[in-house]
Amino acid sequence: MAGVAAAAALAPAGSVILLEMERTLAFHTTGRSAALFVANYGGRASRPLAHASLGFLESPPEGAADAPLLSDRGALWLAGPEQMDHLQRLADEGETSGAGSRLVDSDEVLRLVPALRPERVAGGLYEPSARDIDVAALHQAHVRIARRHGAEIRLSSPVRSIARSGAGWRLSTPLEDIEAPVVVNASGAWGDEVAELAGIAPVGLQPMRRTAFMVPGDVAYSAWPMVVDVDHRFYFRPDGSQLLCSLAEEVPDTPGDPKPRMEDVALAIERINQATNLEVRTVNSQWTGLRTFAPDGEMVIGEEPTAPGFFWLVGQGGTGIMTSPAYGALLANQVLGTPLSPSLLDAGVDPETTTPSRFR
Ligand SMILES: Cc1cc2nc3c(=O)[nH]c(=O)nc-3n(C[C@H](O)[C@H](O)[C@H](O)COP(=O)(O)OP(=O)(O)OC[C@H]3O[C@@H](n4cnc5c(N)ncnc54)[C@H](O)[C@@H]3O)c2cc1C
């Protein structure tokens, strides 16, 4: 998502080549998300990027998408009697980030999701404006905009070396060498490894596993919001006639193609069955993705101070889908040296909070 968002934002200003090591785009984390827009989520510095993305998500540029990118969902954080303090803290964060969320009592929680067990519910925090994202359509929207402006996308093209060439760079893949004045490192979990190819010190990215899976549901559940345990011990949400579920785990891993662990799926099912009367027993499909974080949990967007012409676009963590239009725009502002676009300014985006310089 980061690569195509950057390509879409940069292509109108010049020539762009996107190099992807896999045979298809979105094979890694981007194809493995929970597909949600939730304003009260993610790092403090990154939150304005979600607000700044809404304009694009609600009304994509002409011809970029054939159907709406967002659909109504809502998000409901759930607290048992011993978790009410945590709920208040989350409500305060929601208030600060303008999420429009409100505390609701146990009756309203049970009205929103009747399958919850009353004895497990003390209260909730409801964010009605949370939305489902059509991730494939959003990804395709960035691809369409990039291609319309002449960007080239090269698949099966792992970048193996990055060397200085005059004032710019020479990148090598097994198929070709490419000269470019500017390199954007949008390689997700591999961000530090790709920087090291260019002789640049890592920023300390940490990929974290998160597993999701589908279980049989019912179209009768389709109006439920996403339900998230306030301590992130599990979440679930309707997805057509299925439920998308997760343990919401954050377990350090290394860059790669992680596979689900049976015990993580089993633990999530146990917790969901304790909280609800859904009696989940079977799993239709399962996957694991890497949510990659910088040491302070915020995105890393901007020029490497020790290597002019090398730009970072990594550390999207758990919000790299819903913030993609805005971080693409911010990256383009940085590369082109243009003033922040009005949508970023209005949302309160501050490039100082995401600059790689904070690690140098
Ligand atoms: C279970 C789960 C739920 C999530 N839910 C949400 C959600 O609801 N909302 C949300 O906004 N976000 C969510 N996320 C987070 C979101 O998916 C990520 O933030 C986002 O996909 C990161 O995109 P990316 O482009 O940085 O990474 P990736 O999609 O991993 O892309 C990086 C790309 O770089 C390529 N690459 C690496 N090294 C090289 C090289 N040397 N040469 C060429 N190519 C290379 C890789 O092949 C890969 O395709 C979730 C993630 C998970 C795992």
Can you give a write-up of this model?
This protein is of the alpha+beta class and 360 residues long. The protein has helices at residues 2-10, 47-58, 84-96, 106-112, 135-148, 191-197, 262-275, 324-336, 342-347; strands at residues 17-19, 36-37, 70-72, 75-79, 102-105, 123-127, 131-133, 152-154, 161-165, 168-172, 177-180, 183-185, 206-216, 226-229, 235-239, 242-246, 251-252, 285-293, 300-303, 310-314. Strands 4, 5, 6, 13, 14, 15, 16, 17 and 18 form a 9-stranded mixed beta sheet that branches. The protein has a 3-stranded antiparallel beta sheet with strand order 2-7-3. A 3-stranded antiparallel beta sheet has the order 9-10-11, with no helix packed on it. A hairpin with a 2-residue loop joins strand 15 and strand 16 (242-246). Helix 1 (2-10) packs across helix 8 (324-336). It starts with a helix and ends in a 13-residue tail after the last helix. The model has no long low-confidence stretch (mean pLDDT 97). The structure holds flavin-adenine dinucleotide (FAD). The site of flavin-adenine dinucleotide (FAD) has 36 residues, from helix 1, strand 13 and strand 18. Flavin-adenine dinucleotide (FAD) is lined by residues 1-3, 19-22, 27-30, 32-36, 158-159, 186-190, 194, 210, 212, 246, 289, 291, 316-322.
SSE blueprint:
Blueprint: H1 2-10, E1 17-19, E2 36-37, H2 47-58, E3 70-72, E4 75-79, H3 84-96, E5 102-105, H4 106-112, E6 123-127, E7 131-133, H5 135-148, E8 152-154, E9 161-165, E10 168-172, E11 177-180, E12 183-185, H6 191-197, E13 206-216, E14 226-229, E15 235-239, E16 242-246, E17 251-252, H7 262-275, E18 285-293, E19 300-303, E20 310-314, H8 324-336, H9 342-347
Parallel strand pairs: 1-8, 4-14, 12-20
Antiparallel strand pairs: 2-7, 3-7, 4-6, 5-6, 9-10, 10-11, 13-16, 13-17, 13-18, 14-15, 15-16, 19-20
Helix pairs in contact: 1-5, 1-8, 2-8
Flavin-adenine dinucleotide binds at residues 1-3, 19-22, 27-30, 32-36, 158-159, 186-190, 194, 210, 212, 246, 289, 291, 316-322.
